[in-house]
Write a structure and sequence with these properties.
Rossmann fold, six-stranded parallel beta sheet, alpha/beta, 2 domains, 49% helix, 20 helices, 11 strands
């Protein structure tokens, strides 16, 4: 999840200094307004990887906000003597800010659970149980007029490595408090625990925001702007509450994971022929294997119009036995389907054991075309991310292997293909007025696709982003990713769960 | 929980026949309206103890409603061959009713989890994890215009015994399908699992209703009236959604557990003196014991005005060391307390290890005086049940032993005591205008107290209902219950967890 947060997001010095004055003014203004009308309390909760710069970000907040009305509460593991004499949540309750006040929480009620989970001292069920009770606590806070903003600081492994080395060498950073559970050697585990928290505790009343922490200016600006924006929204329309959705990446308008796909790879024709045959053989063997009799495969294809979904699907199904697979092209729902929950028609088509189902377009249209064209309300497509994650989780838990492909092409390449479709008679049926209309909203679709990938790329159902600028490259990538997913799943190579 | 549902609730033949025509008309009317406007689908989910009469209740529904538009979907454990080839939830998705339709679900998505939990095949954490994912599923249904009504059929052990014997002997009931997990020998475990479901899955969008199944006419009427009422409300104000609260007992206006307290017991003075000394000694020993150093005690006193809370508390604290206990009389919150969540002032006062805290009135005022006098909105006091249950759960999990007492007197006895307070000079401070005002709303307070006991009497923090018509009786009962709770907790006699 949150692929876009791992991109080397940064901001130029100039832009940083241009944005700062407005931001500081806004921060002080909302703080002052809150201080006066006392309509709610604010909690700024910081969590995430060790070395991502939570401490430095707080220092900046203190610089930018009125520090007289800003309390910072840090909690350590293990708890103090006094704390251990009382229930776990007591220390957090004791320090809850009064309405009108703002508190920063460092080492929050997530810490003991995440830490125990990473350290292998809490089962998966145990963690989910904890997270469910955290949800109840946070729902109560929301009802009791506490605005809770939760931030997850993240950065890629290599970058974390560099940061921690710098910190070690830099004596001025003696105050840096190392959290073992989210340090280097637990990088991946901590990310997974964070992903779980984001999946199950990013609610309408207490959303998570992911802070890309590559670049410190970017990080601090993203944090402070999210705070200012959220507080000001709450001050304006005091009761507005969006629906639950996975964490939102606090990005400053930079490119997302889908926009960042490298479209340059090309597969020469001769190589293609050989590799195609190899991968198709491999796929046939995997699907014919004894192990697959107990599993099933679901492939989902989405992508830009004319990206070549159909062609890739045909190369994928070529080596398969037609009795055991089915391709479902998804268009508008029927009247009967409209009378049921939108996932109903997909549940009816999931593969049974030993079978393969391929969706050419899918339930993801909910967060793509339906979002962009306004066919459903914001609340409806926002909740769809969690609903889809739950749906795929159930499929995965029952043994279905899920491969999701986003096939990407450039705007120019699309234009070329559209024209070709218009000109070549037998390709004519493939192009409609609607395709041209969608093309006008290229940027909106790119944002929607990026959000989709960030919010629904889970360990049990990851997205594979494929450049389809060269169709042969795309076809090989799809076959390869499918084979690898099958292989890993059937030999349980994942290694983490 | 749901004490009131265990009372021998019944309805006279005459009342039954008087109410039936209107009920049937209403049922047909809502069904027809729904059929026409197709604004939502209805699912009637039946669960509960074996032998409580779910099958017979369905037969009645079929008689009373238009059976052409009523589907009945029963699911068995273990699932069929076809079902086992797909994810667990597939069979339920397949049968989801379309908007406009009504489906009865028998052996629902709760069954596998509850069954596994009762049979010891699912840990506590595992059950809560399952329930959390059920919540996500049901929230999605609500968003997708499915009205989900969940009914838990319950009856006391003795009654279940009689019913099952009758069923065995009665050859006409051959179709009766025995669910082993909720049969006689698992009575208590099934009730506990049901209680957990009610605590964590009775949400604003999909509430549980408890059906007292002592008497079949009462049972069927309570079921059908709840259905008619819920469907008609949904037809009227299509989006209204109350907050989450523990299951609601579908009672037909009969007395609740608090109103049913037997006020006759009297403790003669001589016996009282002996027993008081004995129990106080016992209490002192328990509190002085080594085991208590690792625990703590929280006692909560609520009751009718003038029921004698103060007197009982003094008898309880008499044998205790003042350095280790504290009595907190609870009145209106201070200005500072008002700026925090309402539970904040109680969290601050919970006992630390080895200590005792006594609340003379408590956070329960939220669902008593604040509810009855309208000091907070219905949504606020409705969510308080769950919030209080979560709060007490956290205390209990950390080792705090919780005893809650409801001290009851009759209206007549209260009048006598009020007058005495007015007449006797040194008792004068105890009576105010407010007491007289509250007395006028006796019936409202009784309903509020009954709901409170039904919804917050958990295994980890049970209510003890005490008649205080005779003060000596009450004092002994309070001491006795406290000693027994301490003893059980410290020797882990509970036996069930």
């Amino acid at each position: 999840m949150f692929q876009s947060a791992y991109l080397p997001q940064k901001i130029s010095k100039k832009e940083y200094h241009d944005r700062l004055p407005d931001l500081r003014e806004k921060l002080l203004k909302v703080q002052h307004l809150l201080q006066t009308d006392k309509s709610f309390a604010t909690i700024i909760l910081l969590a995430g990887l060790d070395g991502a710069g939570k401490g430095s970000a707080i220092a900046r907040l203190y610089e930018w906000m009125d520090s007289r009305y800003l309390a910072c509460n840090a909690y350590q593991e293990p708890p103090t003597e006094e704390e251990r004499l009382r229930p776990e949540m007591w220390r957090y309750w004791r320090d809850l800010p009064a309405r009108g006040e703002t508190a920063i929480v460092f080492g929050s009620w997530y810490q003991p659970a995440l830490r125990a989970s990473v350290m292998g001292k809490l089962s998966d069920d145990g963690l989910e149980h904890k997270l469910a009770s955290i949800n109840r606590f946070e729902e109560m806070l929301a009802h009791e007029n506490v605005l809770l903003l939760k931030f997850w600081f993240t950065l890629p492994l290599e970058k974390q490595q560099v940061r921690l080395t710098q910190l070690k060498e830099n004596k001025r950073n003696e105050r840096h408090y190392l959290q073992e559970w989210s340090s280097l050697k637990n990088h991946r585990k901590a990310e997974i625990a964070g992903e779980k928290a984001a999946l199950h505790t990013s609610t309408g009343y207490a959303p998570w925001f992911v802070i890309p922490s590559h670049n410190s200016n970017y990080r601090d600006l993203a944090l402070a702007e999210t705070i200012a924006e959220s507080m000001s929204r709450k001050l304006d329309q005091k009761s507005a509450r969006p629906v639950a959705a996975p964490a939102i990446i606090a990005n400053l308008g930079s490119v997302n994971a889908v926009e960042a796909i490298d479209l340059s790879p090309v597969k020469p024709k001769e190589e293609y022929k050989v590799e195609l045959a190899d991968w198709q053989d491999k796929l046939a063997n995997l699907i014919d294997s004894k192990a697959f009799k107990k599993r099933s495969l679901l492939c989902v294809f989405q992508g830009n119009d004319a990206a070549g979904k159909g062609g890739s699907i045909r190369r994928l199904t070529a080596p398969l036995d037609p009795r055991f697979y089915k391709v479902h092209p998804i268009s508008a729902p029927t009247e009967e389907e409209k009378l049921h929950p939108y996932l109903w028609r997909f549940w009816r088509r999931i593969p049974k054991r030993g079978h393969t189902t391929i969706f050419d377009r899918s339930y993801y249209e909910r967060v793509l075309v339906e979002r962009v064209e306004g066919f459903c309300s914001e609340a409806d497509w926002m909740r769809a991310y969690n609903e889809i994650n739950s749906f795929e989780r159930e499929l995965a838990d029952s043994g279905i292997i899920i491969c999701k492909f986003w096939l990407a092409i450039s705007e120019g390449e699309q234009l070329k293909r559209f024209k070709e479709r218009e000109e070549v008679a037998y390709k004519n049926y493939k192009i409609t007025e609607e395709d041209w209309r969608n093309r006008l909203r290229w940027a909106d679709y790119a944002i929607a696709a990026g959000d989709m990938v960030d919010r629904t790329s889970t360990r049990y159902a990851p997205w594979t982003l494929v450049s389809s600028e060269d169709k042969r490259h795309a076809r090989i990538e799809v076959l390869k990713a499918t084979c690898i997913a099958l292989e890993n799943a059937m030999s349980n190579v994942d290694g983490l769960e």
